[in-house]
Amino acid sequence: MLAVLAVTLSAPAALGSAKRSQYEGAFAVTGTMSFELKKSRNGKTVVKYTWEDFPLLCDSGPKTSSDFLAFGQKVRRGKFDAVAVDNQSNPGARLKLEGKLKGPRNAEGTLRIEGKRVPLDGGGKDRCDSGKVAWTAQKQ
Prior knowledge:
By secondary structure, this protein is mainly β. The protein contains no helices and ten strands.
């Protein structure tokens, strides 16, 4: 599971309550994704980035992954990104997320998961590389 990360980043908490917007979308090939855009006095942060049935090409054939990021990504100039390496339960699994807010209701980006011990839907781990997979999302 890539949610247990060696790198943990978090945005500073704002005083008072933050406004949140839910985004839902899909990957170009197969699978779905979602995240929340948290707005506060300190700026915008993407939180709860989650994916389901994300497509992987593994040594054992096509597989999928479902998981989430356990840390937020600060939005700067409409863009956000993250690199996550799991050095604890799945050494060698790596994730790279890139995203861009496209106006007030849309977002797009790419997600790549690769490594020699990528956790798979249904259990087990394998050497996999998704390549860069595009995603699009809309504000709900």
